[in-house]
Automatic annotation (TrEMBL):
NADP(+) binds at L13, G14, T15, G16, S17, M18, A81, V82, K83, P84. NADPH binds at N68. HAMAP family: P5C_reductase (MF_01925). This is Pyrroline-5-carboxylate reductase. It is found in: Cytoplasm. Its EC number is 1.5.1.2. GO terms for molecular function: pyrroline-5-carboxylate reductase activity. It comes from Mycetocola miduiensis. The gene is proC. One of its GO terms (cellular component) is cytoplasm. InterPro entries: 6-PGluconate_DH-like_C_sf, NAD(P)-bd_dom_sf, P5C_Rdtase_cat_N, P5CR-like_CS, P5CR_dimer, Pyrroline-COOH_reductase. One of its GO terms (biological process) is L-proline biosynthetic process. Residues 9-110 form the Pyrroline-5-carboxylate reductase catalytic N-terminal domain. Belongs to the pyrroline-5-carboxylate reductase family.
Length: 281
């Protein structure tokens, strides 16, 4: 976000991993919140911890059954970050407490804009988001989709919120499930590759500690090199792959495994499951 952008009063309903990640982004130096942050969660213990954060009003459902309604009263933006199965009941609970024009943003995987719009008043614009777990360290990639009642200004304000934890890609909602199979699930694919290469390193005689240094450091370094380079991943790979060298032999084996087909099948399976979840299966 730019230095002159501010975020109005915001409520985060649900402070699990993703809700907490977004909260941490909003608390970064340079982020201007004009009306404070309200957060809700189920337990008193967690609410007490969150209440220690500057500018945060933290409410526990354990102490205040109507905490969600209280949190959204007067808020300009409401992030719904509870588990997908809890969303319909939550929306029915808060619907009457939302001021006209309040922007409601879904952070719940698989819950459609239509579900939100059907359970909230016509005066409430809805957007749907798909962040990923690197948001926890400020390196997230968030897919963001407008709803049928949201304006360009609503979309811009939502974008500002998610830019506090990384980068944002705006897509039609019809593409959001496909996006979730790439950036949403993508960290798991990377961790799986690291996991398997670490096992290979150990099988070649390195200790677990040495293997972690070798593999984790290589992935981190390669990612940073890509981020700082103006070259494509293919170009960088070719630079490492000397003709008739050792890397060329290894890459040839990997290419014979048809990784493209494997990733196609994996993301297709994830997309099919996303559609099942959206249908309530």
């Amino acid at each position: 976000m730019s230095d002159d952008e501010t975020i109005p009063t915001i409520a985060i309903l649900g402070t699990g991993s993703m809700g907490s990640a977004i909260l941490s982004g909003l608390l970064q130096p340079g982020v201007k919140i004009t009306g404070g942050i309200r957060v809700t969660n189920r337990t008193r213990a967690k609410a007490t911890e969150l209440a220690k954060l500057p500018g945060v009003t933290s409410l526990a459902l354990e102490d205040m059954p109507d905490a969600n309604r209280t949190a959204v009263e007067g808020a300009r933006i409401v992030l719904v970050a509870v588990k997908p199965a809890m969303v319909p009941d939550l929306l029915r609970e808060i619907a009457g407490a939302l001021a006209p024009g309040t922007i409601v943003i879904s952070v719940a995987a698989g819950v459609t804009v239509d579900t939100f719009e059907s359970l909230l008043p016509d005066t409430i614009p809805v957007l749907r988001s798909m962040p990923n777990t690197p948001a926890l360290v400020g390196r997230g990639v968030t897919g963001l989709s407008a709803g049928t009642r949201s304006s360009d200004e609503d979309l811009a304000l939502a974008r500002t919120v998610f830019e506090t934890v990384g980068t944002v890609v705006e897509v039609p909602e019809s593409q959001l499930d496909a996006l979730s199979t790439i950036s949403g699930s993508g960290p798991a694919y990377v961790f799986l590759l690291i996991e398997e290469l670490t096992k290979t390193a150990i099988s070649k005689g390195f200790t677990a500690e040495q293997a972690a240094v070798l593999v984790n450091g290589t992935f981190q370094g390669a990612s940073e090199l890509l981020a700082q380079s103006d070259q494509t991943p293919e170009q960088l790979r070719i630079q490492v792959t000397s003709p008739k060298g050792t890397t060329e032999r290894a890459v040839a084996v990997l290419q014979q495994a048809n990784l493209k087909r494997t990733f196609d099948e994996a993301t297709d399976a994830a997309l099919a499951r996303a559609k099942q979840l959206a249908a309530g299966a």
